[in-house]
Amino acid sequence: MEDETRLTVHGATAYPATAASARVRIVNHIPFLRKLDIELDHMPTLSADDYALLTSSANLARKATVLGRSALRALAIDDRSGMLLIHRLLLLMPLPGIDPPRRLDVYDFDDALTVGSAAATNRRFQWTKQEGRRAITCMRRARLVFAANSILASQARLHASRVEVLPSCVDPVAQPLHAHGVGETLTVGWIGSHTTAAYLKPLLPVVGRLHERGLRVRLTVIGADTGVRAPWIKHRPWSLASQPADLASFDIGVMPLPDDAWARGKSGYKLLQYFAAGVPAIASPVGINSELVAEGRGIAATSPAEWERALVEMGADADSRRQRGESARRYVEEHYSYQRWAPELASMLKALA
């Protein structure tokens, strides 16, 4: 017999759990909410194989078939009872009456969708995806909107009646800590995807110059390929299984960003991942990044000269890196962990029900 005290929430999105945003914003919340009498299920309209095909060089006919299947899945979601939460988009392409949906309880987003991505790869398809228009429609129709940070919340309040900040979270308990010490090589780490790898471009010559000057430094890039082949850079594929160890292998984490409207809406998730591993960071002071690296958790850097000074300063002092990393770990435990946010999220969902 079904437990009538439990609240069922359908977390629908176009993206499978292999996509970071769906995993962070929906899937990883599931075990924490279950302990609080909320059954959150992840309902992607694209399977992992479908999503991989759409991001590949497959022909248009195969991609069209995948999009058709995702539309059928969206129709099935629309017929279900229970609370409906949509993360970002239900479908990659608009389908009137289905996406945006007529009925929507909760809308969740973690990027500046109303502004539009500055990435060329995303601009190419914006006219067909219509992300901004659809996101605004969802905000207007939803009874509750979750925004990943205060900047996005301000954008949402232009369109939505009720907006709450729900940050993207990490699970520090599941993340091993980096053991800071004096090693032969300083490992500077970055984790991301091919869509954000372009942000590393200004940093590459900085690391190259430090290496030429005799500093034993290596930039480890997880999940993307910069196209650079040199002794000071290493590329590794991303996997969910290897991610905790990869993060714990970094001495310093980096997050360079351009100062534009899209980047200012980002949630600093790379920094939170580094911090969970007890790894201090150097980051562009763009959007929420300025707040995250404050109070000794990291160093803000804008120009190449500032990036170079920060890498030299932080790289030279293992004790300082350890202290910064310990402070950063405490910070995410207290402010950006699933353990901290699950009770608050559960309370908001139950109140809405």
Structure overview:
With 353 residues, this protein is of the alpha/beta class. The protein folds into two domains: 7-169 and 338-352, Glycogen Phosphorylase B (Rossmann fold, 3-Layer(aba) Sandwich), CATH 3.40.50.2000; 172-335, Rossmann fold, CATH 3.40.50. The protein is 39% helix and 16% strand. The protein contains 16 helices and twelve strands. It has helices at residues 20-25, 30-34, 48-54, 60-78, 120-123, 126-129, 131-141, 150-156, 204-212, 243-248, 261-264, 269-276, 289-292, 304-315, 318-335, 338-352, and strands spanning 7-13, 38-44, 83-87, 106-109, 144-147, 163-165, 186-191, 217-222, 233-236, 252-255, 281-283, 298-300. The strands form two sheets. A six-stranded parallel sheet has the order 2-1-3-4-5-6, sandwiched between helices. A six-stranded parallel sheet has the order 9-8-7-10-11-12, with helices on both faces. Strand 5, helix 8 and strand 6 (163-165) form a beta-alpha-beta unit. Helix 3 (48-54) crosses helix 4 (60-78) and helix 12 (269-276) packs across helix 15 (318-335). The longest helix has 19 residues, at 60-78. It starts with 6 loop residues before the first strand and ends with a helix. The model has no long low-confidence stretch (mean pLDDT 92).
Short description:
This protein starts with 6 loop residues before the first strand and ends with a helix. The chain has 353 residues and is α/β, with parallel strands linked by helices.
